Amino acid sequence: MPNNIIIPYSATAISVIARFIFMYLLYTKKSTNDLSLLFCIMNITSSTLWIQYSIEISDFPILIRGSSDLLLFSLSSLYIISNKLREHHPILPEHIIATYN
């Protein structure tokens, strides 16, 4: 396999694996960090631009990377927002639970 195919697919694979590691750490730490959310939003924007660029130059490895990043960072953002909402608005507040005991 020539280098002009190995390098972009290797870079794509490493990038996608790194995103899964980020998502795993995000999930296990139950993050609500504003910087994590900002990081995700910036990467969603970047991924969207990479997708557009990859379409313009017909580069499939960049398209795969941009698309997978867009999906994974969107899921991560939704997870962070969900954790923030849960943190600020619990399903059953303690004073309601104490009333029924």
TrEMBL record:
Keywords: Membrane, Transmembrane, Transmembrane helix. The chain crosses the membrane at residues 6-28. GO terms for cellular component: membrane. The keyword Transmembrane helix applies. This is Uncharacterized protein. It comes from viral metagenome.
